[in-house]
Structures are given as C-alpha cells and as structure tokens.
Amino acid sequence: LGKKDVAAMISDLDKNSCDQEALDMLKLRLQMAKSSVKKYQAAERCVCADGRARGLFQFYGANRTGRFSGRHIQLQNLPQNHISTLDEARELVKMGEIKMLESIYGNVPDILSQLIRTMLVPKEGCEFIVADFSAIEARVLAWLAGERWRLDAFRNGEDIYCASASQMFGVPVVKHGVNGELRQKGKVAELACGYQGGSGALISMGALSMGLKEEELPDIIEQWRAASPHIVQFWWDMEKAAVDTVKTHEEHAAGRIRFQYYSGTLWMALPGGRKLAYLKPKLQPNRFGRMSLTFEGVGNAAGSGGWSRQETYGGKLSENATQATARDILTEAMWRLEKAGFAIIAHVHDEVIIEASAGHHTVDEVCSIMAQNPDWCPDCPLAAAGYLAPDYYFKD
C-alpha cells in the first residue's frame, strides 16, 4: 500500500468508527513510511570532514526546463515545519530524550521530519539570510501572456488570491474582510489553473481538503479562465506556434516566446536567450483523436525513466516557458548576489540561503538585489521577501 492509499483508508475508518486496532496499525504504518527521516542518514553519508555537505545540487537537473535538481539530502523536497517550539524540540533530539519528545509531541517521526531543515546551521559568527521570489511563476506567466490586470495587481502589491477571486466573481474580495470567503477559491484556482489544469489539477492542489465541493470545480475553472483571457489565449498561441514550426520548419512566435526548427529538434527560445529542446518532434493522433505534438524525452507521465515519446500541448508548453524563465531570473539573481559578496550556501526552488557575518547585512539588502530585473525583462514585476535565521535554517 502506498502512502495515499493508507491515508485514504485511515480517513474511511475515522469516518465510519470501525476497527480501532486496524486504525492504529494504519496510523503507525503511515508514520513509519516517512521517507523524509531518511534524510538524516543521507546527511551523515555526504557530510565532509569540515561539517559541510557538498554536491547537493545538479545543474540543469530538470531536463525539460533546465532547473536545478536535488541530490543526496534532496533539499528541493524538504518537509515543512509547523511547530512553534523548534528550539525545544531540537534540544530534546540532541539530548536523545525520545521519551520526552514523544510525551510532548506525540508523533516522533513527524517531529523528526519537521526538524530536518534545522540540520543546516551557519558557521560560528554567521547567520542565514533566507530570501525567495514572491509568486514568481504567477508573475512570469502574467508577463509572458500580457495579462494586464494581473501585472497591475503585482505592481500594486495586492494579494493575488484576493485579486483573482475578485476578477473571477466580479466583487471586491478582502482577506478576512468583505467577501473574504471567496479568497480560498481564488487561491486554489491560482495554484491549479495557470497551465490549462482541469478538475484533477484542482483536486491534486488540495481543493477538496480546502472545503470545496467536487461539483463546484468545473465552475471555478471556467470563472478563472474567463477572468484570464490573455493567459488562455497564450496556451493556444503556444501550441499553434510550436505545431506550425514543426510543420513548416520556419520560425513562429507566441508573444515573447519563439519556436525554431533545426537539427531534427524543435527549439523554444526564451526571452533571456536560452533555448529548450524538444527532440524529434512529430504530430500524432492522441487518445482524443486529434493531432497533437509529440517529442522524444526522458521519463513519462507514469513516472518511469528511460526514453519515450511524450505528448505536449499549449498548457504544458506554457508551463515549460514559465518555469524556465523563472529559473533564468533566479540564476541571474544568484549571480548578482555573489558579485555583491554574498555567499549562497543553498538554493531551494525560488529561494536562496545566504551565510553572512552576523549583523553585517540585512534581509532588505538581499531582497532588493533579488528583485532587480534582468535586462531582458525590465517590465516583469518582480518582488522578493525574506527573513533572518540566526541559529539554523527553517521555513518562516
């Protein structure tokens, strides 16, 4: 049984108040299955004599977009920390007080999982400055598609979930205020709908656990798409430009993205100048009977490795362009930070972790450097936020 299967069975047993023994056993099974605690073992294996762990990131590890991927400890896939007493929990673990840990927190594997981030500590006399881009993918997608109201919302510092809900339902939406209950619908729609996602995408993003009903989901999708016509058009333009390029072997554009064909490969030229490759592109009928764009790549939707022919479409191409462009913005920000003398010890998705002499630099200083626009996207509304982590890394 996989984790999701066990979680579903626990939910069913909880609702039906069935066999308590079976319920307890399933809960124990779920706790023991936490692969995240294995990261402690991975850390022990890869730490060097000076206490540093190296080789944790693979350049261009994500073959489609060129983003970095994690190795060893897998910092790109760390559990969140939700407890407010991290200091106390860390001390109990360091002292080996497992009984005390269990009596206070109950679920020991869960606490160990939440403490994984805190393994990373700055060297003596230093502190961590943690900063990340705010809603970078939503900003880049709006910029690529030319969705004006979204760009204005970001430039004005608005809550994008409220702004989205307001645009979707045609009423003012204020967090914890007027029509505040609609913000949740705006949030889940923002997380799931940007790349042509349907009801399945909403569910996988937690729509049902947020309290939405399954019968509501199609309406939410339609309302989001109606509120974001330029993004929807961008999906179709991306697909048409890619298909036309494969058909004619001539260059075609979709807004700021250009498609080219040479050397038996479809190339997506990004605004920053980098190109994504789609090897041996071909038009083939899909399961719905319509012609779709396919290419050869590593891995497939089922999660297996190896080379296979893969299908793509407007939403997926838009996702590739957005994530790859966001990656290029991050790498330029990292270059500027290093040029300014900051030591980046790790980076997780759109976040950088800097080790700096205690009290010598500020969070605002780092965020202002990160939010500077590269020359090739001067009008993309970038923003960054961060916090100090004086003793160890954690998620604010």
TrEMBL record:
InterPro entries linked: DNA-dir_DNA_pol_A_palm_dom (IPR001098), DNA/RNA_pol_sf (IPR043502), DNA_polymerase_A (IPR002298)
Gene Ontology molecular function terms on file: DNA binding; DNA-directed DNA polymerase activity
Domain DNA-directed DNA polymerase family A palm, first and last residues per copy: 113-360
Reactions accelerated catalytically: DNA(n) + a 2'-deoxyribonucleoside 5'-triphosphate = DNA(n+1) + diphosphate
Keyword terms: DNA replication
Pfam family, one: DNA_pol_A
Coiled-coil boundaries: none
Keyword Nuclease: no
Documented EC number(s): 2.7.7.7
Enzyme class: transferase
The protein, known as: DNA-directed DNA polymerase
